[in-house]
Amino acid sequence: MKNITVIGGGVIGLCSTYYLQKEGYAVTIIEKGDITNGCSFGNMGYISPSHFIPLASPGIISQGLKWMLSPTSPFYIKPRMSRDLVQWGYHFWKNSTAATVKKNAPHLNDILQLSRGLMDDLRNDIGDTFHMEAKGCLMMCKQKKTLDHEFHLADEAEKFGLKVERLKKQEVQQLEPSIEMDVEGAVLFKDDCHLNPGKMMEALKIYLETKGVKFQLNTSVTGFEKHHNKISAIITDKGKFDCDEIVLAAGSWLPVVAKMMGIKLLLQAGKGYSHTYANVENNITYPAILIDGRCAMTPWEQQLRIGGTMEISGINDNILVKRMKGIYDSAKAFYPGLKIDFPATDKIWSGLRPVTPDGLPYIDRTAGVENVVIAGGHAMLGVSLATATGKLVTELVQHKKSKIDISAFKVNRFS
Length: 415
Ligand SMILES: Cc1cc2nc3c(=O)[nH]c(=O)nc-3n(C[C@H](O)[C@H](O)[C@H](O)COP(=O)(O)OP(=O)(O)OC[C@H]3O[C@@H](n4cnc5c(N)ncnc54)[C@H](O)[C@@H]3O)c2cc1C
What we know:
This protein is an alpha/beta fold.
């Protein structure tokens, strides 16, 4: 049986490892950090079949340009001299059409639904220590116009077989009787669920360690040795590692590591912020996306996480406090009864979403290098798509026909 090296210990790397070790492969994970923080930890923890519309969609460009003028806005592209950014932006613009969404949404729906089912299986297998709760997710609207649009999306969701409930103001309030809300209405997407992503990462790591997976932590991949069309060794700051096959799951660093192999990938880091409150009096009980507030809220019993924004500003961990203020103000505007204070700057978490130009992930072998599978670019859906991605990656490693059609996730689709 081949030895597989997974580069990147985020949720995509760990879930790929989970399915690979189940098939009997010996897996080593090389990770530059220590798997205690990063994008797969501080996110909102939604498993969202409801998100079948890709990020690149009609209206996002014009809305984004308006938002760029406001320091508290949820979307920002930092103008900079970067060929990669220009190419990415061009393809993002090109894919933000109704026709592309119509073409891509069924593919996104297929992988989302596959992942949702596999997530239940994974939870049953490794045990739920991560607060997974299947009560759906509320898409909450303050304005009638936004609610009408959300009701229209609910019609589309039903065509994909999703269960939805359209709720008026009073019906939303009845779901959260102990907290004052100020909304026009909501759609409850009943197939969605939520979990604590950091705790899920901890549980997965412990499970994989007990199964004999090797973790090579605090080790940065810096290059590769190639023999003919294959990678024969991985070069790191801690020495050289031989490998049979590689799964590249380096999140927002995917283009950087792929370039070391001679592969060009279009991907930008989309920074988001969150803050987690430890003990909230009269906490909300339903996870909620505040549609016209452009942020999200996730409760785990007394804990509450608020988060959002998409800042395309390169790979950095600078915190723009005003954007977190935008998130906090939205939360207070939708839930005036919520007793939370604005967090101190050092308590604001940030993470980098790996964003492709069309909002679909890359899950594919590459033409140039025979023994590499690429898995990444899941943008806002890395947790939602992690189990299906892990399964599909394993099928690619095995050269098996995939469970679903993965032609939309090809790495060369922008060439
Ligand atoms: C505010 C916010 C909220 C979100 N909410 C949700 C949500 O509710 N649901 C959802 O599905 N998704 C959500 N996401 C998106 C989700 O968090 C990401 O899609 C997901 O974490 C990406 O996982 P990944 O494994 O691809 O990348 P990462 O978690 O970034 O992992 C990649 C790993 O590769 C390592 N690496 C990189 N380069 C090297 C190298 N050279 N050598 C060794 N290791 C390397 C990195 O250190 C990193 O640990 C959210 C994101 C944000 C920011």
